[in-house]
C-alpha cells in the first residue's frame, strides 16, 4: 500500500486513520461493486479500491484540485476499474443534476471516509448530504464511513467540566473549561459552554505532530439517524473504532501488523496510545432498504408505543432550542430519565466479515464502554 509522503505519515494518528479506512473498505466492499466516494480529494486512498477489486468508481469532491489529484492517481496507475469524477459539494448541491440520469441510484456503496463532520454545521447541510447519498444508492445499498466520535469527545469534555466544578469555590464563576488534552492530541471548543446544540458545535482538533489544528463539528448521532431516515436510509450501526477493531480482530490484527507493526503489541492488541487515538473515531453504517428483497430495516423507535416519529421530531426540536446540560446528559436530574432504545432485533445479514450489529448505547451513540452515558435517547 502506498502513502503520501510528508511528516504526517509518521504520526500515530495518520497511520491509525489510514488503517481504519483500509479495514472498513476491506471488510465491507465486495468485488465488482460500484462505489461512490464523497470528499475523495487526493490520491492517498487509490490503492484501497484496487485491493477491493471494485468495478466502477465515482469520485465526488468540492475541491477542483482534490478532484484533479484523484483523477491523476487513477489515470497514471491504469486502474482496472472504470471511474468518473465530479466537482460537487455534496452537502450544498444536488448531485443528481451533475451526474447523468442513468447514474442515479446506481451505487452499491456510498462512502464518506473524511469530512462528514463538516456537514453538521447546519441541519440543512446534513439533510442535503443524506438526500444526495440516498439518490446515489441503489435499493439494498450501504452508506458507510468514519467520523470523529462525538460520544467520546463530549463525554471527555463533560468529565473536565465535572472535575472543574468539583474543585470548589476557588474557581471563577460562570467559566467553563473548553479544552481536552491527552498525550496525543488537544481538543478545544470554540465556545466555553456546557450545552451541546444539535448542529454547529465547533471544536479544534490538533494532534501532536500537526502544524495547525483542524476545525470540526460534533456529529449529533440521534439527529444523524433521524435525518437519514427522512432521506430513506435506515440506521444499521454506529460503532467506536476501538470496538470495531476488537470485533474484527481476527481479520484486522494481521492487517495492522503488516502495515504498521508498532501500533499493536505482539498479541495484536492496540497499544495504549493507539487505543486513545483510535477511540476518537467511529464507524457509521446505513442501508437503503430494498422493498423487493424483504421488509425494510427499521430504525428503532422508543419503547413507548405512543411515541411516534412526529413526536420524536418535535422533541428533538425542543432539545435544539434548549440544549443539553451536562447533568441532564448524565441522567442526574430529578426529572424522569428518558426511555432506552430497544434492541435492533433481526437485521438483514451484513457483508461478510462485518462485526456484530450492536445496540445503540448512550445519548450520543456508542463510544468506549467506560465513557458511555447510562441512558439512550
UniProtKB/TrEMBL annotation:
Subcellular location: Nucleus
UniProt cross-references to Pfam families, sorted A to Z: mRNA_G-N7_MeTrfase
GO cellular component terms given for this protein: nucleus
Region described as Disordered: 333-361
EC number: 2.1.1.56
Bias type Low complexity, positions: 336-355
Record GO terms (molecular function): mRNA 5'-cap (guanine-N7-)-methyltransferase activity; RNA binding
The keyword S-adenosyl-L-methionine is assigned to this record: yes
Residue ranges occupied by any MRNA cap 0 methyltransferase domain in the UniProt entry: 8-289
Reaction catalyzed: a 5'-end (5'-triphosphoguanosine)-ribonucleoside in mRNA + S-adenosyl-L-methionine = a 5'-end (N(7)-methyl 5'-triphosphoguanosine)-ribonucleoside in mRNA + S-adenosyl-L-homocysteine
SUPFAM superfamilies linked: S-adenosyl-L-methionine-dependent methyltransferases (SSF53335)
Presence of keyword ATP-binding: no
PROSITE patterns hit by this protein: RNA_CAP0_MT (PS51562)
Keyword tags: Methyltransferase, mRNA capping, mRNA processing, Nucleus, RNA-binding, S-adenosyl-L-methionine, Transferase
Protein name as annotated: mRNA cap guanine-N(7) methyltransferase 2
Organism: Morus notabilis
Amino acid at each position: 500500500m502506498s502513502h503520501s509522503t510528508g511528516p504526517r505519515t509518521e504520526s500515530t494518528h495518520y497511520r491509525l486513520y489510514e488503517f481504519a479506512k483500509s479495514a472498513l473498505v476491506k471488510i465491507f466492499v465486495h468485488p465488482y461493486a460500484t462505489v461512490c466516494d464523497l470528499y475523495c480529494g487526493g490520491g492517498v486512498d487509490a490503492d484501497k479500491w484496487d485491493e477491493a477489486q471494485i468495478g466502477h468508481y465515482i469520485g465526488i469532491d468540492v475541491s477542483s484540485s482534490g478532484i484533479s489529484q484523484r483523477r491523476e492517481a487513477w489515470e497514471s496507475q491504469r486502474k482496472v476499474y472504470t471511474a468518473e469524477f465530479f466537482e460537487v459539494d455534496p452537502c450544498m448541491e444536488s448531485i443528481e443534476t451533475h451526474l447523468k440520469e442513468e447514474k442515479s441510484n446506481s451505487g452499491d456503496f456510498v462512502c464518506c471516509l473524511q469530512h462528514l463532520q463538516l456537514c453538521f454545521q447546519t441541519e440543512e447541510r446534513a439533510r442535503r448530504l443524506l438526500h444526495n447519498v440516498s439518490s446515489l444508492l441503489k435499493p439494498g445499498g450501504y452508506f458507510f464511513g468514519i467520523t470523529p466520535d462525538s460520544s467520546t469527545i463530549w463525554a471527555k469534555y463533560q468529565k473536565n467540566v465535572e472535575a472543574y466544578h468539583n474543585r470548589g469555590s476557588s474557581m471563577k464563576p460562570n467559566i467553563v473549561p473548553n479544552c481536552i488534552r491527552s498525550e496525543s492530541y488537544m481538543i478545544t471548543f470554540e465556545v466555553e459552554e456546557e450545552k451541546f446544540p444539535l448542529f454547529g458545535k465547533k471544536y479544534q482538533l490538533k494532534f501532536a505532530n500537526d502544524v495547525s489544528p483542524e476545525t470540526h463539528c460534533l456529529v449529533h448521532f440521534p439527529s444523524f439517524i433521524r435525518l437519514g431516515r427522512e432521506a430513506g436510509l435506515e440506521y444499521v450501526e454506529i460503532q467506536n473504532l476501538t470496538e470495531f477493531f476488537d470485533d474484527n480482530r481476527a481479520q484486522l490484527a494481521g492487517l495492522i501488523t503488516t502495515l504498521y507493526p508498532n501500533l499493536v503489541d505482539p498479541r495484536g492488541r492496540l497499544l495504549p496510545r493507539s487505543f486513545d487515538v483510535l477511540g476518537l473515531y467511529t464507524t457509521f453504517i446505513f442501508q437503503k432498504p430494498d422493498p423487493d428483497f424483504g421488509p425494510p430495516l427499521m430504525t428503532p423507535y422508543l419503547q413507548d408505543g405512543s411515541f411516534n416519529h412526529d413526536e420524536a421530531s418535535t422533541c428533538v426540536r425542543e432539545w435544539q432550542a434548549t440544549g443539553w446540560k451536562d447533568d441532564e446528559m448524565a441522567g442526574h436530574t430529578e426529572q424522569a430519565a428518558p426511555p432506552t432504545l430497544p434492541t435492533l432485533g433481526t437485521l438483514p445479514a451484513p457483508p461478510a466479515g462485518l462485526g456484530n450489529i450492536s445496540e445503540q448505547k448512550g445519548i450520543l451513540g456508542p463510544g468506549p464502554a467506560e465513557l458511555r452515558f447510562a441512558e439512550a435517547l
